[in-house]
Each structure stands twice: as structure tokens, then as C-alpha cells.
TrEMBL record:
Keywords: DNA-binding, Hydrolase, Nuclease. One of its GO terms (biological process) is DNA replication, Okazaki fragment processing. Residues 57-80, 95-119, 141-150, 172-181, 340-353 have a biased composition (Low complexity). Pfam families: 5_3_exonuc (PF01367), 5_3_exonuc_N (PF02739). This is 5'-3' exonuclease domain-containing protein. CDD domains: H3TH_53EXO, PIN_53EXO.
Amino acid sequence: MSRLAGRLWAPAVWGGRATGKASCQLLSPRESAFVSSTRAAGLRGRKHAPSREARQTAVSAAAEGAAEAGAVPAAPPVKATRARRAASKPRVSDDTGSAAAAAAAATASDSTPTPVAPSRPRRTRIKPAAPSEEGSGGGAATTTPTAAKPTRARRNSASKKATADALPPSPSLQEQPQAAPVTRPNGQSGVLLVVDGNYLANRAYYGYGNGQRLATSKGVPTSITYSVVRTLRAAIRSVRPTALAVVFDHRGPTFRAALSVLDPSSRTRAGDAAARLVQQGRLDWTDLANRLLAAEPLRADLRAVGAAQDAASPRAYLHPTAATFLPPAGDPAATTSGNPAAEPPLDAAAAGAASSRAAGGWNAEYGATSPATAEDGGDVVRMLAAALGPELAAECGLTEAVAALEAAAAGGGRAVLPPQAYKAGRTPKDEEFYVDFRNLQRLLGLMAIPPLSRPWLEADDLAGLLVQQAVSEGLGVRILTGDRDLFQLVDDAHDVALLYPRRGAASAAASAAAPAARGVAGPGAGAAAARRWDDFPFDELREREVVGALGVRPGLVADYKALTGDDSDRLPGVTGIGPKGAVQLLTEHGDLEGVWRAALEGAAGGIAPKRRAALQADWPAAQYTLTMARVLGSPGAPSGLPPREVLPDRLLQRLALRGYEEAGAVAAAMAELEMWTLAREAGPGGELWRDFGGGGPAAAGVDTGAGVGAAQGAA
């Protein structure tokens, strides 16, 4: 009876699931034994599971029955519930019988259809791991999941920046090994570090102290001076140069300002006439720039300023009578009316303005000045008219402008001159900037680092000429700047690289100066900020990184700007051509001249009709920007000015880092500016003195804090 009941009960419960037959169908004795053993193995009470011998007998009987009856068709899989899937997971137990029952169930599932469908697998792509370097057959294969497929937005972003993504990021200078200067084939060794002083000054003025700029207890601003000295120190420690040059823009107009009177996009009489002359082939911008640079008044100014700066000793940057850095108390130069007794107490702004007037009184030819004392533009118009010649000057309306200047000079009036478009519209800085700016230049001169500036030229031009001179003598060059115009000077073949600011540099600088900006006074005021002297947020850019940033190689930076224009310098471009279009045109046609030849070929040149019409209409403006954007010393730049007339032959020897001779005066000057941490290290044998090329403390043989103590005692 028990056997008959098993044959009737088992199919009703397990028949449709285990064998695929109808639930009312009778099973053979061997099939019934298999179902019963399977059910027994799946019971929760593992103590009721059959023994190992019984399981083996049941499995063997089931296998023999299947062989006799033929293959049993599998039933459609039934989706398992969460509870059933959880119950199907193997359980870890020390019970030998339970483990044996689980093994029997696994064996049975291998030879029969699975009663419950497995859960859906995770969508993780698996690929075999790459073979090890020792050989692919050395061990078991491992698998790692691949990255998820990027979204459409990320794919589009990656396609737009394909050139930049293909380039590895430039390592930080702090992560690069500090190697010794490289010896070059001609036997010379060393690296010249060229620093854009104007960039560092603006970076410090607008980025330090979170809007709370640094100043002494008497109101003399020091944000720029303190920041630039710290940045120079960090650059020297990171780059390890053998020579250092800091370049600045000179006060007054430049030869580019003279060219900008004829800006074809200015819609003035002179600009329209210049565009017409270019279309007729009667005016070439590069030739006009060479004639301006060859003008005798310009060269006379260059010679005079160069000789004065070359003859200036470090002590020439001190006060002429008191031998101090800042004007002494009661100095007539530090007051507005010249009578100290009649002057009320000065507040912070008035003290800064007084310091500015006093500084400009004895070294105005070395530093910059505020826009209020700049030239009125008369010399610019006269030089431009002379460079154009009588015929072209008359067509551009400059002859009448020169006559108006002469009449105004004779009658005491003021003439209306053509506007200068170059860098027009920039917001002028307040007097506080120029006070701090001039103090920085004077402090650098006292530290035997001449603040290089030349009339009619910009800091970029001096950097280009310095690179040209250093390369000719076999030196490598690093240019510290945030100006993309200097990308064109990068040259891997001659070891010329750019030190460009990393993102977030301004915030890092602000956090470094925050303790001093909160008004902490005394000798330890800048201790917290000085601990971050090694923060140098600049990365080294080579030709590969320039291509990744702009899409063109360094030699085509000016061509790139000629097509896109430059809003910051008020330089026009070609209408309808942006960065992407400029890169495409320069890639297909080589340079700006190649783009122009393709535009003249019509449809055969491969340029769309709308873009071709824009190139033909704006061609004079594109050529104008090409000449304006090229830095002196770079390939294709105006060469009418011999470099030896701007920079003397022995300048590189003077720029060598050997320490500053007036170490005591430097420490006293920094103490006057209340930069206490730097002042303690600036004295003879101090750490700052050694950073700028001086010998060790043993060689100096003096106390490093002597200069600071003397200055504080005098105060």
C-alpha cells in the first residue's frame, strides 16, 4: 500500500516540476524513488535526509530508468520567488548529513532539468585579464569587469576634445625629480628662468587675501611684493635655474599701439584707408612694423633706458638721501604740499600715494607709472606718419593729424588724434596697485635682479628676445607666465618650455596669504603663510601640451589668433571662424597663407562659400592681427630691431644667480615692508639668500638675523 500511495501522491506534487509529465500521470517505480529522494534532500529538516548509500542507489536507479524510457522533455522554467531563490542558496553547516544532501541535490540537478529557473545575472561584462609579464601560462586565468559604456554626452565631449584627450597630463613640477642642469652639445649648461612680472603682479593683486590685501601698519600695500618674492623663491627651488630674468611692461606707448591706429576693424578713416591699401597690395603690416622699429626716436629711447638700467647698482634702488627703502618720516617727497608740518596725518591710501610719489621721484625711469601720466599719443602719430611715408600718410589722414599737433603745440591747445584700438577699454587700476608694483621692482633691483623693461616694447617681446639670446648660447629656457601669447615660444628642440598656472592657483595663493591678511602683526605675522613657500601651482608645457590646449603647434599660435581674434587685446579676426574652425583650416591648409590661397582658388580650394567670402572680406584684419600677435624673437615676427640694441651681450652673465651683494639692505627693506618671515631669511647667509644663488652660512660667516635686528632697532 505504501508503494502504491507513493506512486499516486508523488506525481501530483512533483510530476509537473520534476519530470515534465502531467500531474495525473503515474510514474515508474524508479522515477518515484528518484522523486522521493529529491524531495527528501530538499526538506528543511536535514535530519530526515536519506543516507549516502540510499542516495547513491536512488540516483543510479533514476539514471537507469531514464536510459530505458528515453530522454524526458524539459518543462518551461518557472520564475522563482525571492523566498525560493534565497532557499536555493547553499547553506554552510557542520552537519555531515546536510552537506551530503546538498551534494546529492547538486548531482541530481546536473543529470536532470532544473526545477527552478535561476535569477537574472548582473549586466557586467567580463573579459580575461591580460597575461602577466612572466608568461601567459604561469597561473590560473583571472577576469576583471570592464568599464561601463559612456553616455552620449560623454562620448560627444570626448570627440570634441580628441586631440587633448590623446595627450597625457603634464606632471606637476612638485612631482618631477629635481635634476641638475643639463649639459648641452656646445659645452654650456644651465637654464634661464624668464618670469612675466606683470602676470605675477596681477595674479597677486586680484588673488591674494580673499579681497583683504596686505599692507604695513602705516598703510603701504605689500600684496604684490610679498607674493611675487615667494613665487620666485618657489620657482627657483622647483626649476633650479642658473639665471633669472623678470620682465615688465614699460610705461608709455608701444609700437603695437602705433600700428593699432590703422586697425582695419575700427571703422575710422585711418582704418578704412589701411584696409583698402592692403587689398591693393600697397601696405604690408610686417614691413610697416619693421619701419617703426627702425625709427631713430624709438632706438634712441631704447639706448637711453638700457644704458641707465645697465649702469644702475643695487643701491641705486634705495632712497637717495636716507639710504632706506621707504621714504623716512618727515620727507618732503612723502607729503602732498612738500611741507610736513602743514600736512594732516595720512591714512592708508594717502600713505600709499605718498610712497608712490617718492618712489617715482628718484627711479621713475626704471618702473611703470599710472595711466594718468602716460603719453598723449602725439609721438605715436608722428612716428607712424613717418614710417608710412608722405603718400600713404596723407591717404590715411595722418598728415592732417600731425599738422593739428603742431598747431596745438604752438597755440597751447589740444589736438584730436586718431584712437588707438590696441588693448583699449581695459579698466585702469587704482593707485594702490602702482605703489606696490613699483616697490616690487625696486626690491628686485636691490636683490641684483634688474626689472627688465624697455620703451616701445612689451614684456612678451623682452621674453622672446631673451629666449633667442639664451638659445644662441646653448641655454635651456623656462618661461613663467599665464599669457597664452607666449605659447609660440615653446620649442622642444631647444629645450624651451612654459610654466603655466594650474587650475585653482588663485585659491591656493589666497589660502596661503590668509593668516597675514587677517591682520596678524609682529615678527611672526607671515609664519603660517611662509610654511607654504614650496606651493608652486604651475605645470610645465611642451609642444605636445600646447597642441592639446589650442589644437595647433606653437609656430601657428599667431595664425590661430589671426583667424579667431583676441578680445582681451582688441585684435580682430575673421567673421564666423571660432577656435574649432581655425584648427580645421590650419590643419587642412598649413598656415594663414595656405588658407588664403585656398580661398582664392574658389570651390577647388575646399572652403565653404560662406567662409570663403568672410576670409576675403576680413583678410586685411587677419593680416593685421597676425603681425600684432607675433612676439619679437619668434619665427616670422618683425625683425627691424636688432636684439643687441635691446639687450646687451653680457646681460645673461649679469642675470646669473650668485646671490645678492646687499644682503643686509635687502633684509632691512623687507623689515620696512613688514615681511618679517622673509626678512629673517634674507640676511647674509640666510635661507632666502642661498635660494637666490648665495653661498652657505659657513661661507658667509655672519648671523642670518643681523639685518633684521638692525632694521628693527633703527625703527
